[in-house]
Specification:
The complex is a heterodimer. Chain A has helices spanning 2-32, 39-56, 61-84, 92-114, 139-161, 163-173, 175-180, 185-211, 220-233, 238-256, 264-278, and strands spanning 119-120, 129-132, 135-138, 213-214. Chain A is mainly alpha-helical. Classes of the chains: A mainly alpha, B mainly alpha. Chain A binds chain B through residues 29, 35, 82-83, 86-87, 90-91, 93-98, 100-105, 107-109, 111-112, 220, 224, 227-228, 231, 235, 262-263, 265-266, 269-270, 272-273, 276-277, 280-281, 290, 292, and chain B through 57, 63, 112-113, 115-117, 119-120, 122-124, 126-128, 130-131, 134-135, 137-138, 191-192, 236, 240, 243-244, 247-248, 251, 276-280, 282-284, 286-287, 290-291, 294-296.
Chain lengths: 292, 324
């Protein structure tokens, strides 16, 4: 029982990071229907910025986290401006290839500049283990969970209660009608990319702190898993991303504790396929009927 | 078959033969070395895989990200059969079994998943390809992550060339056949096609399985040519590389696929000198090409020898509609 709860806690922690990443996928998908394959690489960039701010500039962890989020947000907007905006009215698959190009560019560019080796992320916060009825939890796990939840609540507030959030929802529902109502679509999309990238960067810095190592290809697998999480929860739906992220995180850590640990990724994908077959639009997705 | 059609077919055939002779002579006089031949074979293998994927993505409009999984099945089936049955017979047997297994799996995977639409199908096929790779990585018989070495080489550039041409002929004729036209109808408007009595799932599955067969063939050729295989060669990235070929060529354009596979293969060879900057340049070129021509180099059009050689487009305005 304690192992179960222990794994549940570890899974929730890992799932929080997937959820942070998945939110970016889901928002971008919701607004421009793009699977942003470069999103995992923003997560990697975020981790490198965090590394830079802590190791080189000796900043406090939380200041470094926020700065990394801000810089990554700017990069996200720049990427959208250069590689996605000119393709706004092109076939969707062209934007997808452009996103893949950006992904290759970031991965290989970082490898070229800083080498492909893993670097150890600075121990900005000393790890303290808490024992609680036989369950172990570290202060870093708590930081990850709390930071993710705070960011998710913040996002929910922005989307629900601010003018920009309303614009985001309007553009996602019907871009043409939104622009007729005087909403600047380009600004709204830029804003979406900024928020998504900031959340991804936060995920990157938190994972850097937790696993203690970063490398230029670190975004590939979590990027793919976060995308799976977004689809699982119902892509385009913000709470869905959180649900999907946590579900995948928990499943992964649970399988890790069984003899099938080598197959954990396969089991995650199998669950995805099963859920999609039962509910083709994801767990929280609504079934839209296609009009003739 | 009218005379113009025979002339047309013969000119395509002679174009294919000319390419063959050109490579042959260039190799004889030493213009193309061992390295050049490797490039040609890899281009040919990519052409076979990409034509198969274009049938799925371009013609039937089903977004599949799992092509590498079927390539892996072809490659591993070939390697495993060749361990038991050595020699050319083993290679042929391996390739055939790879194609058969791949087709069966595509059928089993396709029937339920092809009900999914668009990006949901993409993620489901991606998931299946990853499952195949992870299973291969954890099985004893496939030698886990290390892969299989010392596969006997039976693949020459001549074989790949001939198979690529045959693939092209099959795919192009398939697209023009009745089922091919039905598949296009399903792509263009599924609901309308269904209301005309077309069994949409059936045709989607036909395209998906055919694509998987060619992927397996490509994987099989690759295994014997490179003589070693490992699960990491068939990861998500491999599916993406094939997808890039068909999107840059122009989705649905078979000649676009062939031209792009050749162009990207040559580009890759040229960039070898740049070392670690290679992929950065490749990525930048990819983005720039997409920004300049989002619809792909050929769009949805095909290369038409008819227009070039016979200038028929203008003179026989009325009867060129049936085979443009």
């Amino acid at each position: 029982m304690t192992t179960f709860i222990q794994q549940l806690i570890n899974g929730l922690m890992l799932g929080s990071v997937y959820a942070l990443l998945a939110l970016g996928y889901t928002m971008v998908y919701g607004i421009i229907k793009l699977i942003n394959f470069a999103h995992g690489d923003i997560y990697m960039l975020g981790a490198y910025f965090g590394y830079f701010f802590i190791k080189v500039l000796h900043l406090n962890f939380f200041i470094a986290l926020i700065l990394a989020m801000v810089v990554s947000a700017v990069i996200g907007v720049v990427i959208e401006y250069i590689a996605y905006r000119p393709l706004r009215h092109s076939p969707r698959i062209a934007v997808l290839i452009s996103a893949l190009g950006i992904s290759f560019f970031l991965e290989n560019g970082m490898t070229y500049l800083y080498g492909s080796d893993q670097r150890s992320f600075p121990q900005a916060i000393k790890t303290v283990q808490y024992q609680f009825c036989g369950i172990q939890i570290s202060n870093i796990q708590l930081i990850i969970a709390v930071t993710s939840i705070v960011l998710m609540l913040l996002l929910t507030y922005i989307v629900k209660n601010t003018k920009m959030g309303r614009a985001m929802r309007a553009v996602s529902a019907d871009p043409d009608a939104a622009s007729l109502m005087g909403i600047n679509i380009n600004h709204t999309i830029s804003f979406t990319f900024a928020i998504g990238s900031a959340l991804a960067a936060a995920g990157g810095v938190l994972i850097g702190l937790y696993y203690n190592s970063i490398d230029p290809l670190m975004g590939m697998t979590p990027g793919l898993k976060a995308f799976v999480a977004a689809v699982l929860g119902g892509i385009g739906i913000i709470p869905g991303a959180a649900v999907g992220g946590w579900l995948i995180g928990i499943l992964e850590t649970m399988v890790q504790a069984t003899p099938f640990s080598d197959y954990k990724d396969a089991i995650v994908y199998a669950m995805l396929i099963v859920i999609l077959l039962i509910k083709p639009t994801g767990i929280l997705g609504k079934n839209k009927r296609e009009k003739v | 078959m009218d005379q113009a059609h025979i002339k047309y077919t013969l000119s395509w055939a002679s174009l294919a033969a000319m390419g063959f002779i050109l490579i042959f002579v260039a190799q004889m006089v030493g213009l193309i070395g061992h390295y050049g031949i490797t490039t040609i074979v890899l281009i040919g293998i990519n052409i076979i895989a990409a034509l198969g994927l274009n049938l799925v993505v371009g013609i039937s409009g089903q977004f599949s990200l799992g092509h590498a999984g079927f390539m892996a099945i072809g490659a591993y089936a070939t390697a495993l059969v060749m361990e038991v049955v050595p020699g050319v017979i083993g290679f042929i047997l391996g390739m055939v079994s790879g194609i058969v297994v791949s087709g069966v799996i595509a059928l089993v995977v396709g029937i339920p998943t092809l009900r999914l639409r668009g990006d949901y199908l993409a993620i489901a096929t991606l998931g299946f390809a990853e499952i195949i790779r992870i299973v291969i990585m954890n099985l004893k018989i496939t030698n886990g992550p290390a892969g299989i070495f010392g596969i006997a080489p039976f693949v020459s550039w001549q074989l790949v060339y001939v198979l690529a041409v045959i693939t092209l002929i099959i795919v192009v004729n398939f697209v023009r056949s009745m089922p091919g036209q039905a598949i296009i109808a399903v792509r263009d408007n599924e609901i309308a096609a269904e209301s005309l009595g077309i069994n949409t799932t059936k045709y989607k599955v036909i395209a998906f399985v055919t694509g998987a067969l060619f992927a397996a063939m490509a994987g099989s050729l690759r295994a014997s040519f490179i003589q070693s295989i490992a699960p990491k060669d068939y990861a998500f990235m491999q599916s993406i590389m094939i997808l890039i070929i068909i999107v840059i060529g122009g989705i649905g354009s078979m000649s676009g696929t062939v031209v792009t596979a050749i162009a990207l293969g040559l580009l890759d060879t040229m960039l070898q000198n740049f070392g670690s900057l290679r992929m950065v340049i490749y990525a930048a070129i990819l983005i720039v090409v997409m920004l300049i021509r989002p619809q792909g180099i050929f769009g949805s059009r095909e290369l038409s020898l008819k227009k070039w050689l016979f200038d028929e487009g203008d003179r026989h305005g009325s009867d060129n509609t049936e085979n443009a």
